[in-house]
Amino acid sequence: MIPKKVTVIGLGYVGLPLACAIAKTKLFNVCGYEISPEKAALIQKGISPIEDEVARKLLPKIKLTVSTSDEILRDSDFIIVCVPTPVKNNKLPDLTPVKSATRSILKYLRKGQCIIIESTINPGVCEEIVLPILEKSGLKGGRDFELSHCPERINPGDPTWDVNNIPRNIGSLTEKGNARVAAFYRSFLKGEVREVSNLKVAEATKIIENTFRDINIAYVNELAKSFDLMGIDLLETIHAASNKPFAFMPHFPSCGVGGHCIPVDPYYLITRAKKAGFNHSFLRKARQVNNSMPHYAVSLLEAKVKEAGLVFSKVKIGVLGLSYKANIGDLRESPSLEILEILASKKAHVKVFDPHVPVKSDVKTLDELCAWADVLLLATGHREFAAVPAAFFKKHGIRVILDGKNCLDKKALLKARIVYKGIGH
Q: Are 361 and 354 in contact (CB under 8 A)?
């Protein structure tokens, strides 16, 4: 029996681990459609172009055919769309990649196929945007082909939860098609696969998961600003509140929210709800608070530089970290990038170092950065930074540290007579 053909569109942080997980079973002929020639070339050599343990370990061992031509979509039984869904500069959803991928599928759509969208989308996109494009073929969704949504839940850098064991939700046009797609996912996943009642419910799950986090992070970020004025250590307060065994979930403040999900997904829900006649004022406020944190971090740094008796326009500022999240090199929506823009607008003297993004670093080592800098702004909580003892910073003559991720030893730094400030800490 010829294995069914599965083609994944978009081999990034979502698509590549997924393709690897499917190919590992050897139950399917797995292909990937990737528009980046550089990425495609690396993957064909068994090299992962992204920081992902699943992809890194499996790529050299599996059979995965990759092409930059949409011809590879031909004769696929399952096509899974894993393209980005960003927001534009005006914060409106940009569904261009999803529309483009769908138009590529249209060329090769045939009866019996299952089209699965994993890209994060707002409720209604499958039926209002994807389905009309596909039905231009003359085929009818739910009768001639199935359209499903299985929202991705990739958590880059997480050593515990990966594509294999994270539970998933699936919604489709028809109950029969949903069962078929769920069976397909169960064939290669260890995590629970839940069949929900329709496409909109599936689309809404990922949106509310990340919006929930955005709201709670905004809450503690606003508390950080408030508690700073009242002289209360928010981190200690959160840890104390966390010993309540019910009805409290700790979230922590920082210099900003990054990544492809939390700072993006709320805008998809806000925009779609507005179309339906509802204004998500609470969600908008949460986004405003979290978007303000890079500016707040820089304002704290300015205050601490002044407290140390230094002149902000003359000090040399070392920024620790470029990526949005600790221990990976992902720059998507990183607050560090905005911090650098703010510092540039103030004509500050800045150099940056990120061991996970060496090509965009101004120096090669932390030693080199600290030997140059007078003050530091930690924007990413990499383990390489969190493990550095206070004595190291003292030896290099660092006068001020603004800890945007609250990951350094505050007591040790203050004891070393370094002016220190965390976010709410």
A: yes
83-131: pLDDT as tens digits:
999 988 888 889 999 999 999 999 999 999 999 999 999 999 999 999 9
Tokens standing for 139?
Answer: 């085929």
Residue 86 domain-assigned (yes or no): yes
Total of domains in the chain: 1
Domain enclosing residue 53, as ranges: 4-197
Helical spans, DSSP H, in 308-382? 335-345, 366-372
Q: Cα 403 from chain centroid?
A: 22
Give 158's contacts (C-beta < 8 A, 6+ positions apart): none
Q: Please tell me the predicted confidence (pLDDT) of residue 87.
A: 87
69, burial (CB in 10 Å: exposed 0-12, middle 13-18, buried 19+): exposed
Contact 317, 374 (CB under 8 A): yes
Give the single-character DSSP code of 130: I
Q: How many CB atoms lie within 10 A of CB 186?
A: 14
The active-site residue out of 20, 82, 255, 261 is: 261
Q: Can 261 be counted among the known catalytic residues?
A: yes
Task: State the pTM of this model.
Answer: 0.92
Q: Kindly write down the DSSP assignment for every residue of 285-339, as one continuous string.
A: HHHHHHHTHHHHHHHHHHHHHHHTT--TTTSEEEEE--SSSTTS---TT-HHHHH
